Amino acid sequence: PYDPEKARKFISIIKDHAKRLENIIEDLLSLSELELSKDCLSKTEFDLKKLTDEIALSFGYELDTKRHVLSIDQRGEDFRIKADRDKIEQVIVNLIDNAVKYTNEGGQINIYILEQQNDITITIRDNGIGIPKEDVNRVFERFYRVDKARSRQLGGTGLGLGIAKHIILAHNGQISIESEIHKGTKVLIRLPKV
């Protein structure tokens, strides 16, 4: 016999799987585009500090839900870079999203933006669950997940950090990660100034 409740449950499962596949396909397309050509960048001049402030505001609901405190500190006066704004936004969104997801309730997320002579450094640090030492060097690999069950539960594709690395390298920048289990993670990005 037809059970409407079971049918709804199956439809919901199918929808979730379809969304996950859609996310993987979108991420793979982004990665392929970046690997094939640096010409896929549409560079304009913009203020990295203002962009970061806007992105942080968009995380209000997630931060409130998990009772996280997010702070942004800056040192310098001119945070203009010439880059693909959408792609840099994608990187920062991904890094803040990871910090929110992998930091236990009531956590702290700090963003530091530093103007230097030739570049601007942005550091995103959390006091979350951290990454084991043996996994830190592998997190930029495609589909690599430190905690596969938790990542799947939180909706990750395993491609976000790989895409972030390709985007930063395509901008002649640098990205690195430091982490300690149960103490947190720090991601450092260096981008050339205008």
Entry keywords:
about 190 residues; alpha+beta; two-stranded antiparallel sheet; 7 strands; single chain
Describe this structure in words.
The chain is an alpha+beta fold. The protein contains seven helices and seven strands; from the N terminus they run αβααββαββαααββ. The protein has helices at 4-36, 48-58, 60-65, 85-101, 133-136, 148-154, 160-170, and strands at residues 43-47, 69-75, 80-84, 108-115, 119-126, 174-180, 184-192. Helix 1 packs parallel to helix 7 and helix 2 crosses helix 4. The radius of gyration is 18 Å and the shape is globular. The model has no long low-confidence stretch (mean pLDDT 85).
Task: Reconstruct the topology from this structure.
Layout: H1 4-36, E1 43-47, H2 48-58, H3 60-65, E2 69-75, E3 80-84, H4 85-101, E4 108-115, E5 119-126, H5 133-136, H6 148-154, H7 160-170, E6 174-180, E7 184-192
Parallel strand pairs: 2-4
Antiparallel strand pairs: 1-3, 4-5, 5-7, 6-7
Helix pairs in contact: 1-7, 2-4, 4-7
Beta-strand percentage? 25-35%
Helix content: 40-55%
- State the strand order across the main sheet: 2-4-5-7-6
**Rg over CA atoms:** 18 Å
